[in-house]
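JOB MANIFEST
job_type = single_chain_structure
chain_count = 1
residues = 241
[input]
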Amino acid sequence: MAKSASKPAASAAVPPAPSERVVMTVDIGGSHVKIRLSSGGPKRATDSGPDLTPETMVARVKELAKDLSYDLIAIGYPGPVLHNKPAVEPVNLGKGWVGFDFSAAFGVPVKLVNDALMQAIGSYDGGRMLFLGLGTGLGAAMIADNVALPMELAHLPYKKGLTYEQYVGAAGLKRRGKKKWRRTLFDVVARLRAALEPNYVVLGGGNIDLLDELPEGCKRGGNEFAFEGGFRLWRNEELRF
């Protein structure tokens, strides 16, 4: 009597590829926390501010995304990051961020980087790129052949005992007016291009809207690129940060 064919063993479940998993990007700002999914849909936002702690941020984002489905999270943090956790308390938010474990709090894998770096990654188009974020301060990052590096250029001395940030950040804009702010920005970009030798510069951040013309060698970015940067943190296997 012939033996019946043995039943094939059930194959082990294979986790989805990174390109198939849904990423939620969380962009933490001084006035709002914004989210968007890689699977599509509109941006959603909740309030931020000087009393925002990491626990409060997590609770608000969970409420904001309670009807959404996602597998991974990318966070842009307004400050230095070390080993996937905040290394310094943010200037414009509450306390308790340093060392906070976001993966444990959200219950899904999280990649966390400086917010300027995340926007830079979303703006990157190959080669050597310098990113400058024009907002409350001066965010900066450089990406060279897919190696992404956050940079603290904002606090370097510029003129009259003041820093780059104090001239081209929001305080400098308010103190000196748009005309002088624009002229100074062109000078700052020229100095940084000469020192760092990028192939191109991307200017992002909210105050990019104040520029009708861009300095030589620059491209226009914007805060919306931060969402794409978050998606790329999980999906671009060539990226190193």
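[summary]
The two ends are 64 Å apart (CA to CA).
Helices lie at 54-64, 102-106, 115-123, 164-168, 170-196, 225-235.
exit_status = 0
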